[in-house]
Amino acid sequence: GEDVEQSLFLSVREGDSSVINCTYTDSSSTYLYWYKQEPGAGLQLLTYIFSNMDMKQDQRLTVLLNKKDKHLSLRIADTQTGDSAIYFCASQAYGQNFVFGPGTRLSVLP
Amino acid sequence: DGGITQSPKYLFRKEGQNVTLSCEQNLNHDAMYWYRQDPGQGLRLIYYSQIVNDFQKGDIAEGYSVSREKKESFPLTVTSAQKNPTAFYLCASSIRSGGRDTQYFGPGTRLTVL
Q1: For residues A92 and B101, is the Cβ–Cβ distance under 8 A?
Q2: Is B42 close to A43, i.e. CB distance below 8 A?
Q3: B40, A92: Cβ pair inside 8 Å?
Q4: Are the C-beta atoms of B103 and B93 separated by less than 8 Å?
Q5: In whole angstroms, what is the distance from residue A20 CA to residue A70 CA?
Q6: How far is A7 from chain B (nearest CA, A)?
Q7: How does pLDDT run across B34-44, given as a tens digit for each residue?
Q8: Residues in B touching A94 (Cβ below 8 Å)
Q9: pLDDT band, very low/low/confident/very high, at A81 (cuts 50, 70, 90)
């Protein structure tokens, strides 16, 4: 079945850029999403990208999509301590349910 | 305020007991979902409902049951048949726009079996 993979941990220094990577297997994925989860809370939608796009930028967030390699990344510029959280990548083929990755725990060091 | 509420936030259950987790939304969304989250794993879909009085099993439905009698409500019952129920449970609802679903999540319920 469909699968979404992410590395489980990432540590960065405050002020640096963070890059969280994700790979997916379903070539029919139409939309790809990034969600953020703070401790003990639900998931918050950060951004999404349509499969016919290569890049999307929203303030400090940049999403890059390499459809050929089925690779998605989320770059957070000027990472702050408030960005410490778990980041989930999710894919969705048209009319299908979401498939979530295992989440990447981002730790921001002072 | 529009949103999704889940209650309780923490729930403790003795082995052999059934418990029901509440999920309510006032977003007027047709679709609702229940996910289970375990450390180091992604969200796994338990049940989902696209419309009132209809629901489908997700990937890990065994030991769980749901009902969808009202658009706003999608309670999840964790039965004694669920062998390892200790987990964080997330409810979500979604609306479709232009072929894309946007899922909104509640704050979650942490269930612990004693």
Answers
A1: yes
A2: no
A3: no
A4: yes
A5: 14
A6: 10
A7: 999 998 778 99
A8: 99
A9: very high
